[in-house]
Amino acid sequence: MPGQLIVSISGIRDRTFADVGEFCEQLDARGVPVSFLVAPRLPGGYRLSDDDPTAEFLRSRRDRGDAVVLHGYDAAATKKRRPEFSTLPAHEANLRLMAADRVLEQIGLRTRLFAPPGWLASAGTVEALPRNGFRLLAGISGILDLVRQTTTRARVIGIGAGFLTEPWWCRTLVLSSERIARRGGIVRIAVAAKQLGESAPRQAVVDAMDLALMHGATPTVYQWRPDSLVDAA
Description:
Blueprint: E1 4-10, H1 17-30, E2 34-38, E3 41-42, E4 46-47, H2 52-63, E5 67-70, H3 90-106, E6 113-114, H4 123-131, E7 136-138, E8 142-145, E9 150-153, E10 156-159, H5 167-182, E11 186-192, H6 199-214, E12 218-220, H7 229-232
Parallel strand pairs: 1-2, 1-11, 1-12, 2-5, 6-7, 10-11
Antiparallel strand pairs: 3-4, 7-8, 8-9
Helix pairs in contact: 3-4, 5-6
């Protein structure tokens, strides 16, 4: 049975906007939609609400079938060397989710989907997400339907943003994608936007994607539907 292919991009901002746009053209040519992992703030003082071109790009991409997924609030480590939302108790996670949700609503990018930085969510975060209206959590090892409390097992593999970027890892990404697709699994490829400016990481993602498509994987995005968890994945 053919599997699925989900490609996500994190870290889109003014500095990476051009590379992301060019990469999306390659995906468009293959009929592969994109899941954009979006945070209202990023290190260095960046605020998405002040970046009109990027916000408009994301709105237009979502209108054509791509997905917007909340990817934290400001990417700040809440403990040393631990990603945001990976160790937070419920009340602190709730405050950050509320703040991020408010910003995305103001700029027309509100979403009910969540993928924590580093793909790691604390128990407190999992508890706080449905309180704030979120329906899907994309984690490191699976996709959790927060409404049904069921999980589709599928490990994310990626380049940058916590994943390695060395040539040997790029090869591993390609081989892993082919193996998962050949078995009819869900190929979840994540790439940091700043890596798209480098030819080797970008080509590795393209090769991994092409192999998954060759094995019949259906391109899709992170989404939640009331009818079917399979479709939601």
